[in-house]
Amino acid sequence: MTDYPMRQIIDGDGALVDDRYKDQLTPELVVEMYKKMVFARLFDRKCVNLQRQGRIGTYVPFEGQEASQVGSALAMREDDWMFPTYRDHGATLTFGHSLKNILMYWNGRYEGAVPPEGKRIFPPAVPIASQLLHATGAAWAEKKKGTDRIAIVYFGDGATSEGDFHEGLNFASVFQIPVIFFNQNNGYAISVPTTRQMHSRTIAQKAVAYDMEGIRVDGNDVCAVYFAVKEAAEKARRGEGPTLIEAVTWRYGAHTTSDDPSKYRDQSENELRRKTADPVGRMEKFLKRYGYWDEHLKAYETEATAEIETAVKAMESEPAADISHLFDYVFAASPWPIEDQKADYHRLKGGVR
Amino acid sequence: MTDYPMRQIIDGDGALVDDRYKDQLTPELVVEMYKKMVFARLFDRKCVNLQRQGRIGTYVPFEGQEASQVGSALAMREDDWMFPTYRDHGATLTFGHSLKNILMYWNGRYEGAVPPEGKRIFPPAVPIASQLLHATGAAWAEKKKGTDRIAIVYFGDGATSEGDFHEGLNFASVFQIPVIFFNQNNGYAISVPTTRQMHSRTIAQKAVAYDMEGIRVDGNDVCAVYFAVKEAAEKARRGEGPTLIEAVTWRYGAHTTSDDPSKYRDQSENELRRKTADPVGRMEKFLKRYGYWDEHLKAYETEATAEIETAVKAMESEPAADISHLFDYVFAASPWPIEDQKADYHRLKGGVR
Amino acid sequence: MKTAVKTREITLIQAITEAMDTMLERDPSVLVLGEDVGVNGGVFRATDGLYEKYGEDRIIDTPLAESGIIGTSIGLAMNGFKPIAEIQFFGFIYPAFNQIVTHATRIRGRTLGRFTVPMVIRAPYGAGVRAPEIHSDSMEALFTHMPGIKVVVPSNPYDAKGLLIASIEDPDPVLFLEPMKLYRAGRKEVPEGYYKVPIGKAAIVKEGTDITILSYGAMMPIVLKAAEKAEKDGIRSEVIDLRTLFPLDRELIQSSVEKTGKVIIVHEGHRTNGLAAEITALINDTETAFLSLKAPIQRVTGFDVPVPMFSLEEAYLPSIEAVYDKIRFLAEY
Amino acid sequence: MKTAVKTREITLIQAITEAMDTMLERDPSVLVLGEDVGVNGGVFRATDGLYEKYGEDRIIDTPLAESGIIGTSIGLAMNGFKPIAEIQFFGFIYPAFNQIVTHATRIRGRTLGRFTVPMVIRAPYGAGVRAPEIHSDSMEALFTHMPGIKVVVPSNPYDAKGLLIASIEDPDPVLFLEPMKLYRAGRKEVPEGYYKVPIGKAAIVKEGTDITILSYGAMMPIVLKAAEKAEKDGIRSEVIDLRTLFPLDRELIQSSVEKTGKVIIVHEGHRTNGLAAEITALINDTETAFLSLKAPIQRVTGFDVPVPMFSLEEAYLPSIEAVYDKIRFLAEY
Ligand SMILES: Cc1ncc(C[n+]2csc(CCOP(=O)(O)OP(=O)(O)O)c2C)c(N)n1
Ligand SMILES: Cc1ncc(C[n+]2csc(CCOP(=O)(O)OP(=O)(O)O)c2C)c(N)n1
Ligand SMILES: [Mg+2]
Ligand SMILES: [Mg+2]
Question: Do D126 and D13 share a structural domain?
Answer without folding.
Answer: yes
